[in-house]
Amino acid sequence: MPETTALIDRLRSRLPRDGFDDRDPRDVTGALAAMVELAEGRRPGETRAAVFTPTIAENGWTSRRTIVQICTDDVPFLVDSVAAAIAEAGPTVHLLLHPVVTVRRDDQGRLLEVGGLGGRSESWMHLETDRIPTVEQRDALRERILSVVADVHAAVADWSLLRRTCLDIVTRLRTSPPPTAAPAEISRGTEFLSWLADDHFTFLGYRAYALESIDGEDVLRPIDDTGLGILRDAPSRVVHLRPEARETAREPRILTITKANSRSTVHRPVYLDYIGVRSFDDAGNVTGEHRFLGLFTSITYASSVTTLPIASAKVSAVLAASGHAPGSHSAKELEQILEDYPRDELFQDSPEHLLDVATRISRLRERRGSAIFVRSDEFGRFVSALVLLPRDRYNTPVRLRIEALLKDAYGVDALEYTAKVGESPLAQLHVVMRMPKDHDIPAVDTAELTARLEAALRTWDSEFVDALHGAYDEETAGMLHARYSEAFPESYKEFASPAEAVGDVSRLERLDESGGVAVHLYAEGDDPTRRFLTVVSVDPRPLAEVLPMLTALGVEVVDDRPHTVTLPDGATRHISDFGLRLPDAALWADENRAAQFEAAFLAIWTGAAENDNLNALVLHAGLDWRDIVILRAIGGYLQQIGSAFSTGYIDQALITNPEIAVSLVRLFAASFDPDRADADAQAEIRDGVLRDLDGVASLDHDRILRAFLGVIDATLRTNFYQHDADGRPKPWVSMKLDSKAVPDLPAPRPMVEIWVYSPEVEGVHLRFGAVARGGLRWSDRREDFRTEVLGLVKAQMVKNAVIVPTGSKGGFVGKRLPDPAVDRGAWLDAGKDAYRTFIRGLLDLTDNRTAAGIVPPDRVVRRDGDDPYLVVAADKGTATFSDIANGISQEYGFWLDDAFASGGSVGYDHKAMGITARGAWESVKRHFRELGIDTQTEDFTVVGVGDMSGDVFGNGMLLSEHIRLVAAFDHRHVFVDPDPDPAASFAERLRLFRLPGSSWGDYDPALLSAGGGVFPLSAKSIPVSPQLRAALGLDDAVGALTPNELKRAVLLAPVDLLWNGGIGTYVKASSESHAEIGDRANDAIRVDGRSLRVRVVGEGGNLGVSQLGRIEAARSGVQINTDAIDNSAGVGTSDREVNIKILLTALVREGTLGIEDRNALLASMTDEVAVQVLRDNYEQNVLLGNSRANAAIMLPVHERLMETLEARDELDREIEFLPDRLTVQERVEAGEGLTRPEFAVLVAYAKLALKTDLAATDLADDPWFSGTLAEYFPSALRERFGERLGEHPLRREIIVNTVVNSMVNRGGITFADRAAAETGATAEQIARAYVAAREIFDLRGFVVAVEATDNVVDTATQTRLYLDFRRLLDRAARWFVQHRSEGVDIGAEIARFAEPVRLLSERLADFFHGDEADQFAARQSALAAAGVPAALAQRGASLLEALRLLDVIELAQARGGDLEDLARTYFRLSGEIGFDDLLSSVSGLAQDDSWQSMARASLRDDLYAVLVDLTASVQTHAGGLALDQRYAHWLAGGGSTAQRAAGALAAASAVPHPGIAVLSVALRQLRSLVR
Fold first, then answer.
1. Pairing of strands 66-73, 120-129
2. How wide is the angle at C-alpha 568 spanned by C-alphas 566 and 571, nearest 5°?
3. What is the Cα–Cα distance from 1233 to 1242, expressed in whole angstroms?
4. Do residues 126 and 100 lie in contact, with contact meaning Cβ atoms separated by under 8 Å?
5. H/E element, 974
6. Span between the terminal Cα atoms of the chain, in Å
7. 1217-1226 own/partner pairs: CB under 8 Å, 24+ apart
8. Which DSSP letter does residue 305 get?
């Protein structure tokens, strides 16, 4: 044989190009090789077939389908016949290639050539079908194919003989017609047979039969050797005729035209046409039959009936018998009916029956009726039914009903049909029903069949009309019919009865008022576990969305039938019917439970309720969906406070214990429903819950359910029972909680918190005091946003320590936000809606303040006292939302009006003021002053985070013209200017700041120094110039960096200042992981605090450095505070705005001030407000600087303060990263104190504790503080409305805040705590004493003088002055506490002491004597040498000595006499006895614990007291003498006892570093001198 490869290539060339385009060449070659292998050796006339599923292992190629290959002689009908045979077996054919190949073979059938000339045509077929899994199935298909191909060959081979046989019969009939047959019939028969032979019939088989009688039964016996075509090899068995056939078997008629019992295996797989021609003997008796099997050609069915033999004669007979005049309308109509008549029926039916049927069809057309015409096959094998019905009623459901009717009537399982729907008003359905073997055609009552047909054709629409009229009045029914008559699809009509449709129409009509959806739950059938839910909606929902809703309700969905309703205007509505099942029929309960189920489903569908497993409590516990919202809200809160259990597990605990779930809901209602609240019922239900909990087997479930109970117990208020303007429950739930009562709540615990829940949003607002403020954050931390807020509120409390309110913070998450990547506008709008809900939830629970007093919110049961103060602010994500909040505040009529949320359009614009940056810059200036640099006059280098379009960064980088900005980065670029020109770069930064939407990309490259650039973060690599390398302190080997590497290098640059104006955390401690920081976006660039090479960090932005990172940086020598200290000016501005607005809004409401005037007044005070706010920043930085000066010495004292705050449960050192006791001890031993960041935290807690103490006293009610209140407000406000300031609702809080700030800023962090510990005085007594001392000694004047030396003298000198004055205040306050045991009258004491102190202070330098005079002079000289102005140097040198003036003045006022003379005696005596040395020795005593501190203070006080007594004694006994004689005279008057005491005192004073024992002896000797 030729080379197989060549054969394959030749065969490949014969295939269509698209046959194997997508196949692996290996598989194509394998298929062709298999075909060649099959064809090899085939003999002429032989058919070969293979059916197999190739594999690599067995065949060397593969296919995902089963392969059918056939090789046979080419003949017609092969493709159709083989395809039909495969289809009959079941598989689908996916590929069929059938090239006719010219082949030459040798005598053994071996292939010699393929595709050459002179060969024989062969059909090589390649088919690919669905995978046939078993060998048996593949073998069976192969045998079937071989059989069919054999039939094809037989039919084709004998076709000429078949046709010739037919024509021979025609000849015999013409030449020897049977005498018993009518001539006309013979003529029609021969005409018909000739017509068949003229290519109108595909002859497939023939056989002759002899009609014989066996045992009296007529039978047909096949005549041997007469078979042709497919009947060539048919079995030669006697054919027993059915009774119907026997009756007519010997009738002398020529033709029998009918259908055979078998389908054709050749050409078309339809039932074979059967043409029987009877044979006669010479006497005209029927002797047998010539039987032809085949298929009428397609032209038969397309030709007019008038051209068809047999049929045309019948048509003519029918027309003639009809009596209609030829050409008349009726005749034409009848002719058309017959044209439309099934051709097989025309051939087989009688003219009489045809006339009857056609006439009745004509009448049906006139009235658009319906009828069924039945004809039985003469051989009893099948029934033919012709069904006529109005065309518009015909559809698939109707056909199926007709089929079912006929199957039932005739007892058949299957039938065949042909439908004809044309322009005729009637549709025609021709149905053939074949009787099962050995079954007779049953007798069917035609009238009954017709009646049943009419019932089957009874239209759904007509019944729908009747149902509408039964349910509505005539007018409404007519309107609804017009709207819905053509709205329902057929699929709906098949499922729903017209009566059910009327119910759905009712629901459709209610869609507009029911929110676009209506539902109906109903029972149907005998299964009690089943229910059906009809959902009618405007918008469709996919099953994948609805199924979880129903599943969550606890039901199994077993069926779904969706339908689309199309209204006349083209609008669509949707109806879905769901079959539901429950495992326990009892759960369906009664109609009330059905209503609950419907309401719950509607709530889930509309989004009013979330789709979760808790909804199963509707069926399992009989709860309304709104009741479940209570449990869902509490469950959400438990998740946020760190429950150890998942949401799903929490839900399951409730579902598993439905009785307890119901009791929890009842407890909530008994506690907070204003219509049902009952303390007795509440106690009873709660006791029942506790009893039920004892029966809960699962420990986890017990913990969860007790947590629910705990939250309900801790709840103070809820809006759950409030209604909206339409009287409906609000779609969100707010709960105000006593945080300290919530079980297992993480520390720190707020005073109260409000939890807001809805399907759209969840939020929490944490408040650490009755008067508190803080921002509301749009969080992206869905799972733990409360944890985020709790972390933020700690910083907020530190910030707020300087302002009136304490710290609060809120955060919310939107739960159904669109994807911002798809539509950012929609995302933002949805976020604003979530914010609105959150705000409303907060205000729902907040008391209002009116002229009549405090007004509680409507329908809210309060378990707490009045609580009207709620102020919020912007935060991350809500920077532009303040107007929204204020609008809602005004909508609620809230007393704060637009003071509710600071930063709105009518208020102080922080960016325009640059206030946050300016406040942080006060910290920067202080840091640099401590380094000896004046940032406003000396150049310094800076790197930063941010760009000039930002508020904090942009404003900050314009606060000094001496900034040399070396590098900065934001989320778009890295800016590097290695050697910037201060003036040029300042001007360019100013231009960018003023350019809307600017970025570093807008920076003029011509102004950049050599080696600099602006590098986009999209760059893969950034070249590093020598200048850049030097500026950023990079290794010489660095030649290029990625953008992230460059940003990291910027943070580590060796410059003076790192200015953070961005968002993110960029510095951590080396002990912290990036995961602990929680800012993954900056993990790649974040650095450790100890690695910073800057000298100063300015935190304009929040959270730029972690607290541990700050501490680590500070301990590594970096000057750094905290973000709460640095950027608190924004908070301060907002608070002052709120407090100003509170006053002015009241004036607007009463008509004293117009709204426009108010706004103008607000704007006019902007600059003064800024000055006031920045004053707080300045003073806090001075405080931190002063604290650091003696941090190591004072660490034990700071430790005692932390212990005190811990004991009050107000401080958690671990949370605030303050050193524990062991660390404190280590630092004491190392001579280290607290760092600046630690002080910043401790300052806040000291202030907050003091505020708490003073808020509970009457301190603020002292009339003296009216001036303090007035000074809080800008001058314009004082001038216009000074008399109204006392009406301010926060008058007391403002006064307390002002006093506390002064006490801590000037008295020191531990001032109040030490004073309380060492004197036992109350916070109010200490505060009064402090204020009196502050005013008497003119703190304000002193501070002004010291601040005037900024950048003139070094900060160390300033700090010494501040600390000396602090000691003065400390001791003076103690003096008042000890000398005014009944309390300090601030105004009276100031009146009593201020002027004498002022007068004596001016001459104090003249009073010093002896060593004290020398010491004063030395101190004064040292201050002067440091650059302190003379007046300040004199005052500073005598600060601590001024304390004694209180004793002097007190003594003078008690004794009378000349004040100055008494003062001179006092200080002369002090110098003589070395009193100052004794005091210094006392100050040098250790104060490692509180007892030592108290002993030291007591000793000092005793010394002062003794000196007063001695002065009084000297004045009494020697006051008349000259000053320089008084002491000696007085001492001599004391005799030897006095001399011995004086000697002992001198000896004690000579002891170096005397301890408390020596000093106690000295004190005793002094006391002995008093007489």
1. antiparallel
2. 50
3. 13
4. no
5. strand 973-976
6. 150
7. 1217/1107, 1217/1108, 1217/1111, 1217/1241, 1218/1242, 1224/1195, 1224/1196, 1224/1199
8. G
Residues 6+ apart with CB under 8 A from 1387: 1262, 1263, 1264
Residue 503 CB neighbours (<10 A): 17
Report the SS3 class of residue 1271. helix
> From the candidates 809, 1141, 1247, 1251, which is the catalytic residue?
809
Query: What single-letter DSSP state applies at residue 729?
Result: B
Model confidence at 1541, in pLDDT bands (50, 70, 90)?
Answer: low
Give the start-end residues of each E strand in 159-265: 201-214, 217-222, 228-229, 239-240, 255-263
The two structure tokens encoding residue 1424: 């002067």
Other CB atoms within 10 A of residue 1324 CB:
18
Residue 579: beta bridge partners? 532, 559
Buried-exposed string 877-907: b where 16+ CB fall within 10 A, e elsewhere = bbeebbebbbbbbeebebbbbbbbbbbbeeb
pTM for the whole structure: 0.70
**pLDDT value of position 611:** 93
Quick one: pLDDT at residue 1? 43
Amino acid letter for position 20: F
- Take residue 215 and report the two structure tokens written for it: 């045992």
Cα–Cα distance, 883 to 1521 (Å, whole number): 78
Residue 979: burial class (beta carbons within 10 Å; 0-12, 13-18, 19+): middle
Closest CA to 1490 of 1337, 1332, 1248, 1310: 1310
For residue 221, give the 3-state DSSP assignment: strand
Written as six digits, the tokens of 462 are: 């007509």
Q: Three-state DSSP class for 324?
A: coil
Taking 80 as the threshold, does the pLDDT of residue 1006 lie above it?
A: yes
3-state per-residue secondary structure call for 960-1017: CCCEEEEEEECCCEEEECCCCCHHHHHHHHHHHHHCCCCCHHHCCHHHCCCCCEEEEC
Round the average pLDDT of the chain to a whole number and report it. Answer: 90
Tens digits of residue pLDDT in 1371-1412: 999 999 999 988 899 999 999 999 999 999 999 999 988 888
pLDDT value of position 1566: 73
Q: Is the peptide bond before 1196 cis (omega within 30 degrees of 0)?
A: no
For this structure, is 493 an active site residue? no
> Taking residues 508-527, what's their average pLDDT?
86
- Give pLDDT, residue 1544: 63
For residue 191, report the phi and psi dihedrals to the nearest 5 degrees. Answer: -60, -45
Closest CA to 1479 of 1541, 1540, 1415, 1532: 1415
Instruction: Check if the beta carbon of residue 380 is closer than 8 Å to that of residue 410.
Output: no
Taking CA 613 as the corner, what is the angle to CA 611 and CA 617, rounded to the nearest 5 degrees? 110
State the Cα angle at 999 between 998 and 1001, rounded to 5°.
120
**Predicted confidence (pLDDT) per residue in 1117-1147, tens digit:** 999 999 989 988 988 999 999 999 999 999 9
Q: Is the pLDDT of residue 413 over 80?
A: yes
Tell me the three state secondary structure of residue 1555.
coil
Tokens linked to 1121: 């505070």
* Cβ atoms 757, 633 nearer than 8 A: yes
- Distances in whole angstroms, Cα of residue 938 to Cα of each of 734, 1056, 1351, 1427: 55, 12, 11, 19
- Find the helix or strand (DSSP H, E) in which 871 lies: strand 871-873
Number of CB atoms found within 10 A of residue 673's CB:
16
Angle at the Cα of 416 from the Cα atoms of 414 and 418, rounded to 5 degrees: 155
| Contact indicator for 1216, 1107 with CB cutoff of 8 Å | yes
Angle made by CA atoms 925, 929, 931, in degrees to the nearest 5: 120
